[in-house]
Amino acid sequence: MTVSLDEVRRVEAEADCLFDQGEVEEAVTELAAQVTALLGESNPLILAVMNGGVVFAGRLLPQLPFPLEVNSITATRYGGAISGGTIRWLLEPSAELRGRSVLIVDDVLDEGITLAEIIRYCHEQGAASVHTAVLVEKDLGKPKLAAPISSPCVPAIVTCSATAWITRDICATRPAFMPAKRFEKKR
Fold first, then answer.
1. C-alpha dihedral (129, 144, 157, 73), degrees to nearest 10
2. How many helices (H) and strands (E) in the chain?
3. What is the C-alpha to C-alpha distance for residues 30 and 28, in angstroms, rounded to an integer?
4. C-alpha torsion sign, points 25, 26, 27, 33
5. Residue 160, pLDDT above cutoff 80
6. Is 182 exposed, middle or buried (0-12, 13-18, 19+ CB in 10 A)?
7. How far is residue 185's CA from residue 10's CA, in Å, rounded to a whole number?
8. Strands 16-19 and 170-173: what pairing?
9. CATH (residue range 14-185)
10. Angle formed by the axes of helices 21-39 and 53-60, to 10°?
11. Rg (Cα) of the chain, in Å, rounded?
12. How confident is the model at residue 169 (pLDDT cuts 50, 70, 90)?
């Protein structure tokens, strides 16, 4: 699915800016401190979920002051659509997961179906521990499938009830029925 530049500009013009670049950087710095405390002594494998997690990973990784290995994984339910379907594996990590502490880094947590599947995959591959870090958690009014007790989750910094995306700011479009600015910081 290709989106025209005019459509991108229209959506960007109509979107609400939830958190500006400074607020995002502050939150990522706080998250980096949590990750460092949790995984700083384990030489973890960081798995960036493509494509969404690449911007977040690019902000988080320079703030992790310890040895680590970076790789990527792509499992999608969307395939260019705005609602999810069957999970499709597009890219498995090239790094060995067996015996490793793994941190899965993704941009937005919706229902948690895809993230739960990635967590399951990591455990099946023999990861010693699996943790998740997401920048935006959508508030869908129901429990998430991701981050079971066996997979501790670094808390998301934002909750929103809209379609969100991350560039240097966190922006979101919202359905017409949703009140403006129904967003909160999770700190």
1. 50
2. 4, 11
3. 5
4. positive
5. no
6. middle
7. 26
8. antiparallel
9. 3.40.50.2020
10. 70
11. 16
12. low
Beta bridge partners of 101: 129
Look at the block and give the residue holding tokens 């007790």.
Answer: 149
Quick: pLDDT tens for 19-36. 777 877 888 888 888 899
**pTM score > 0.70 for this model?**
yes
Calpha distance 123→150 (Å, rounded): 10
